[in-house]
Specification:
Shape: globular
Number of helices: 4
Helix content: 10-25%
Number of strands: 7
Mean pLDDT: 81
Amino acid sequence: MCLHQDRGQRMRQVDHLVPTLNDLYKQGRMTWTEQGKGWIGRPEEVLGALATDGFYECHRERAASPTGRRPTEGAWDGVNPHTRSVASVTWTVPRSPEPPVVFIEIDGDSITRPAPTPVER
């Protein structure tokens, strides 16, 4: 169930607080890197944006890490029940201070640029 479609006006207002993938890109919180062939961004924000876009988590993994350190890589799979699309996200966290690199696929296609807005189509 997509909250902004099924829960009424109050939930619509809350949804605007959590950005979509396009919002993350437009706000500069997710940028493409040719060098890494992926997105520079925070994995948690990307997963939250996919949830806003209608995807529900089906599976999540994080690599084990030494005590006191953040995980160095992870994977997430989700499905959008309205569109029947499947999203897969993997990420790596290089040594500090480098930011995480996030790789996004939807229905097997790598996402390398934001989706066009209705005005751009």
